[in-house]
Amino acid sequence: xxxxxxxxxxxxxxxxxxxxxxxxxxxxxxxxxxxxxxxxxxxxxxxxxxxxxxxxxxxxxxxxxxxxxxxxxxxxxxxxxxxxxxxxxxxxxxxxxxxxxxxxxxxxxxxxxxxxxxxxxxxxxxxxxxxxxxxxxxxxxxxxxxxxxxxxxxxxxxxxxxx
Length: 163
Hints:
The protein is mainly alpha-helical. It has 2 domains: 11-113, DNA polymerase, domain 1; 125-163, no CATH class. It is 48% helix and 6% strand. The longest helix has 21 residues, at 84-104. 13% of the residues are buried.
């Protein structure tokens, strides 16, 4: 347990402690990086605060901001709001952070009052039989080999069985 009292612990310091804890748990670097980006973005939104100053109302306000006003910077330059699944992922990160922080710094967890945001899974379209046949053929053979002294032929890929 942390020897500092939660009343003096700043959010940024708590986030670093959480990331060290999750790293020690054995989570992948990619997961830790995702936690770090999400929590840093949330911390920048809230500003410098002590961990005990965060309320469920603050978290509701942030999730609403992400849903309505936040415009993410996309590589494609496309401008659209975050998807409901992304907002759900932010909720998961915040929930994990506050579950850890409430135990570590012994204060009431503000996430207990916040239900997870709803989202619908995107429907998956099945491949047609013809598309599956083409994919399997692509795994077996390479493109046509063109030679000077022989007829054209198709070579079997050395990794065909594995592919």
